[in-house]
Amino acid sequence: MTAPLTLLIVEDETPLAEMHAEYIRHIPGFSQILLAGNLAQARMMIERFKPGLILLDNYLPDGRGINLLHELVQAHYPGDVVFTTAASDMETVSEAVRCGVFDYLIKPIAYERLGQTLTRFRQRKHMRESIDSASQKQMMRCLMPMLAVNLKTNCRPALIP
Fold this sequence. Notes:
By secondary structure, this protein is an alpha/beta fold.
């Protein structure tokens, strides 16, 4: 089972951010939903809470979301980003896709589409965790015989005088 996720919504229109959060609360798998109204708040929350998914608007009062996306890529941030912007900003959407965003949503965001994106994200995360778990089990199966041989050959009983 996939661990619950923290999601950060970076959106300067507070009523819109709250509507997104309310919708997401009804989707299983998201344990904590955080809101940031600008890039400074977003950076602080990313540092503090390490959200697994960031819903990132492009136009914010203190800069552009695409710049934060570049920072996250540069820092090899392990979480994913869903980029949101206006339909007229396709050049920025292309740039975001080249940066490796999980998905992009054109504003106004259709909640059915947001739900599909979040469901796909959870499915992919579950699949990755299953692969990681299987890889660890397989690695242990391979290592156990070697460890047993090592214990037999390298561990000698202590001589008690």
